[in-house]
């Protein structure tokens, strides 16, 4: 296959009519169901387990700002998701959105990372659930397991201390519930989520009665700010870690194919769940860091331990119960979204077609659930939770970034106006740019790809420059930083001088391209603060994915089949036409 042909195939767009609702899955979910699915997915290990670790080791009390920043970045991404949910109400999350906006290869990259996101997220939650229950039982489970199997992390630091058989069985149990059907699993999720919200209310309002404002004020004996003990960089690093707590809203988009009215339900459920969750995270982390000093926070059972230190045993038990409820709903949300994303990719031919089979009775992609659910259970059995969470954030941020970029791209493409029977001005320049006459010769909307490529590249280089201290470095490093900032602004302004299209939608992201560009910038800022080993792990995962795509997906894609059929029809038509013409012009 020639390079030009391969490039054309890799960047072809998915042919999906606007408002297409045909699906083999059952449309039975209300806006309320989907909202609680998002809340349940997000309020789990993210708050009950992750908070203690980030407060103790990364951000201190400034975790309140970390959650705000991560929540703000997630909200900006959620706006972009909501527009796509109204534009293309299909399953597959960011995967489908990238397919219709950026091309097949980008869609595969995002889909492959979303699959990993749900697998690692579910494994991390299951391992957290097991660890939390074990700590409540006095470490009986872990001690007996180690006595039988020995320490697993002696092989490598990426493995857990011991094989977590309870986490393995928990994933199998939840996968069984999910396999019973979307309505059964969402009803189970809704019940536990409502109980969990009740526990959040107890933590916030009872915990604040023990508040000591001096824990946030002034400096400690080492001269460090009590609110920023790890500095502002610690707050940013904490925000990157806290992003793990918000991965659930991405799973809402995967419910689009089972929502009764997806164009309306997905945007409403996204904003409602994001508001509830962000408010809960900020208030709970504030309550925790005002109850006890940050360096006394328990890394895995933070809230229960904090109440115990104040002698509030009832609240401690309530929080422990709420933590188990919350992590269970988070696990249900992850296992609900996982097979549906695999199903979307397999249905499009980018993954093996057998994974797209749907059970005729429950209307659930059971084979995708069995294969990837088993892999998730194996990951939970073997790997350390810290390794899972570190690897999880980068794939999530990458997916959110590409969705934001796709919103800008689609807004500046020409749209066909049915009433006028012609294309609008979308993607055309408002005026000619000096010394850039070649831009006027490009097809409308094509120059946006150049502007987006430059903006994303310079955003990444600028963020990297800030992270390594170029602002306070040598003149050369400062010049490097300022040039990239200037090019970022210039590319943004270049996008602004194009006409947007006037496609009517039930919801649109306001202030495009400002909002999605800001989302891109914040996501990239957090990505560059992740550990380098996380990037290496991502490269290994993507190498495996590219082997599948270029070995199987690029040849079995539905778009490949459609292109081949159109080529065959076109060739047949031309042959017939040629015969007719030659017959008409040949002498009798």
TrEMBL record:
Domain of life: Eukaryota
Keyword field contains Hydrolase: no
Gene3D superfamilies per record: Amino acid/polyamine transporter I
A GO MF term: amino acid transmembrane transporter activity
Residues in Cationic amino acid transporter C-terminal domain copies: 507-557
InterPro entries membership: AA/rel_permease1, CAT_C
Annotated compartments: Membrane
Chief localization: membrane
GO cellular component terms listed in the entry, alphabetical order: plasma membrane
Keywords: Membrane, Transmembrane, Transmembrane helix, Transport
A Pfam cross-reference name: AA_permease_C
Bilayer disposition of the protein: Multi-pass membrane protein
Transmembrane spans: 34-51, 63-82, 94-115, 165-182, 194-215, 227-247, 268-294, 314-343, 364-385, 391-410, 447-469, 475-497, 509-526, 532-552
Designated name of the protein: AA_permease_C domain-containing protein
């Amino acid at each position: 296959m020639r390079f030009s042909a391969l490039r054309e195939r890799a960047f072809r767009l998915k042919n999906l009519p606007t408002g297409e609702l045909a699906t083999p899955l059952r449309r039975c979910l209300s806006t309320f169901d989907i909202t609680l699915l998002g809340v349940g997915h997000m309020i789990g290990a993210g708050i009950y387990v992750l908070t203690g670790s980030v407060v103790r080791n990364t951000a201190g009390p400034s975790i309140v700002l970390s959650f705000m920043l991560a929540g703000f970045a997630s909200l900006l991404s959620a706006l972009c998701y909501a527009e796509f949910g109204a534009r293309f109400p299909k399953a597959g999350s960011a995967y489908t959105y990238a397919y219709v906006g950026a091309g097949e290869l980008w869609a595969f990259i995002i889909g492959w990372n979303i699959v990993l996101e749900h697998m690692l997220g579910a494994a991390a939650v299951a391992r957290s659930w097991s660890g939390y229950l074990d700590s409540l039982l006095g470490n009986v489970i872990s001690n007996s397991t180690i006595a039988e199997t020995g320490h697993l992390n002696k092989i490598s630091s990426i493995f857990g201390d011991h094989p977590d058989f309870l986490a393995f069985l928990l994933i199998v149990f939840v996968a069984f519930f999910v396999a019973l059907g979307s309505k059964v699993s969402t009803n189970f999720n809704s019940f536990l989520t409502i109980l969990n919200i009740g526990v959040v209310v107890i933590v916030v309002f009872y915990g604040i009665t023990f508040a000591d404002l001096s824990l946030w004020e002034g400096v400690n004996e080492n001269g460090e700010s009590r609110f920023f003990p790890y500095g502002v960089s610690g707050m940013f690093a904490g925000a990157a870690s806290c992003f793990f707590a918000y991965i659930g809203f991405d799973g809402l988009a995967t419910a689009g194919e089972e929502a009764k009215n997806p164009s309306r339900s997905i945007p409403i459920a996204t904003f409602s769940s994001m508001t509830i969750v962000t408010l809960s995270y900020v208030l709970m982390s504030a309550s925790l860091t005002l109850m006890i000093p940050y360096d006394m926070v328990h890394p895995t059972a933070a809230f229960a331990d904090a109440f115990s230190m104040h002698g509030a045993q009832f609240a401690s038990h309530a929080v422990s119960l709420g933590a188990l409820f919350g992590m269970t709903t988070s696990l249900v949300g992850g296992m609900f979204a996982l097979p549906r994303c695999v199903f979307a990719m397999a249905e499009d031919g980018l993954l093996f077609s057998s994974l797209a089979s749907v059970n005729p009775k429950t209307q659930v992609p059971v084979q995708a659930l069995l294969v990837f659910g088993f892999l998730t259970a194996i990951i939970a059995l073997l790997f350390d939770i810290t390794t899972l969470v570190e690897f999880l954030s980068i794939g999530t941020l990458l997916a959110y970034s590409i969705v934001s970029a796709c919103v800008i791209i689609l807004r500046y493409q020409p749209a066909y106006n049915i009433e006028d029977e012609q294309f609008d001005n979308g993607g055309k320049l408002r005026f000619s740019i000096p010394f850039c006459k070649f831009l006027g010769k490009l097809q409308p909307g094509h120059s946006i790809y150049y502007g987006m490529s430059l903006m994303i590249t310079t955003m990444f280089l600028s963020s990297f420059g800030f992270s390594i201290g170029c602002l306070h470095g040598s003149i050369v490093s400062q010049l490097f930083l300022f040039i990239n900032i200037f090019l970022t602004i210039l590319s943004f302004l270049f996008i602004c001088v194009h006409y947007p299209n006037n496609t009517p939608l039930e919801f649109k992201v306001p202030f495009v391209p400002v909002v999605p560009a800001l989302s891109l910038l914040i996501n990239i800022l957090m990505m560059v603060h992740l550990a380098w080993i996380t990037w290496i792990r991502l490269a290994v995962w993507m190498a495996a994915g590219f082997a599948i795509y270029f070995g199987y997906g690029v040849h079995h894609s539905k778009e490949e089949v459609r292109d081949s059929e159109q080529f065959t029809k076109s060739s047949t038509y031309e042959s017939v036409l040629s015969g007719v013409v030659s017959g008409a012009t040949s002498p009798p």
